[in-house]
């Protein structure tokens, strides 16, 4: 059974603008090899009508966090602790029946692979219509009219004809558009996009991103955008959360984090990203090593085994003491503010020009 507990001393949301508040979220999986700490003490806020970008390597806890918000974790093997409040509604202690009412109506998700998210046995139109009928008590005709309207809104040509097509009859870009239409059928207040453009070519990717921004402006939806692509997030997000080993290591406005990153992991992500205006013969600087096992995460700072700057910190703080992440613009790192600025200006910034 899932263990659901509410942390009594979790900090309150930062202000009235906070539409989604996550506080001290911990998500653990029971496996044959032991307990996997997939998310370990994560806190963040999302404002209404704004986009929060979440970046990090595979296994950093991005998708697990957002599946937990929706209550889509495995109830037999998962322990969830902490606080998730959506527009005043507590989700961690909510029943499955309560979450079913919220999913689709108040919060929805665009999955990374529409081929696995869409059922091959039902038409696209039916898969759009049924949730609308369930949540709104609409008739079949009303649901079809709404579905055709949404298919047209997301740019699918001849929506009335495509309503009766099956997912395999859609191209990859069209399937992703249909997933967006499905997610927006009931005008959700929160939309979670889990790497929605990863499998698409660059042209279709740009179209999907522009579509999401237009729909957000029209509906005022709050968006959590999960990706490993910093180029994509720079054009999509208002705020940015950098995750590593189930924890947030840096956060701030997308402009601040990408222009003046404060954490060695953020430096590594930016240094390993190719630039369109860069020298094609210039070698990228990869982050050494591999992400840690979440079955047995390292002590202290989780990034210290891969960090090139841990020797700059006096004593053994990096290996023994877990750095905290303050509210607002912050990075969870033991380097002093002066050290971070000096390292960034002298060593990191020249690589990013």
UniProtKB/TrEMBL annotation:
<dbReference type="Pfam" id="PF00005">
    <property type="entry name" value="ABC_tran"/>
</dbReference>
<dbReference type="InterPro" id="IPR003593">
    <property type="entry name" value="AAA+_ATPase"/>
</dbReference>
<dbReference type="InterPro" id="IPR027417">
    <property type="entry name" value="P-loop_NTPase"/>
</dbReference>
<dbReference type="GO" id="GO:0015833">
    <property type="term" value="P:peptide transport"/>
</dbReference>
<dbReference type="GO" id="GO:0005524">
    <property type="term" value="F:ATP binding"/>
</dbReference>
<keyword id="KW-0067">ATP-binding</keyword>
<dbReference type="InterPro" id="IPR050388">
    <property type="entry name" value="ABC_Ni/Peptide_Import"/>
</dbReference>
<dbReference type="InterPro" id="IPR017871">
    <property type="entry name" value="ABC_transporter-like_CS"/>
</dbReference>
<dbReference type="InterPro" id="IPR003439">
    <property type="entry name" value="ABC_transporter-like_ATP-bd"/>
</dbReference>
<keyword id="KW-0547">Nucleotide-binding</keyword>
<keyword id="KW-0813">Transport</keyword>
<dbReference type="InterPro" id="IPR013563">
    <property type="entry name" value="Oligopep_ABC_C"/>
</dbReference>
<protein>
    <submittedName>
        <fullName>ABC transporter ATP-binding protein</fullName>
    </submittedName>
</protein>
<dbReference type="GO" id="GO:0005886">
    <property type="term" value="C:plasma membrane"/>
</dbReference>
<comment type="similarity">
    <text>Belongs to the ABC transporter superfamily.</text>
</comment>
<feature type="domain" description="ABC transporter">
    <location>
        <begin position="22"/>
        <end position="270"/>
    </location>
</feature>
<keyword id="KW-1003">Cell membrane</keyword>
<dbReference type="GO" id="GO:0016887">
    <property type="term" value="F:ATP hydrolysis activity"/>
</dbReference>
<dbReference type="Pfam" id="PF08352">
    <property type="entry name" value="oligo_HPY"/>
</dbReference>
<keyword id="KW-0472">Membrane</keyword>
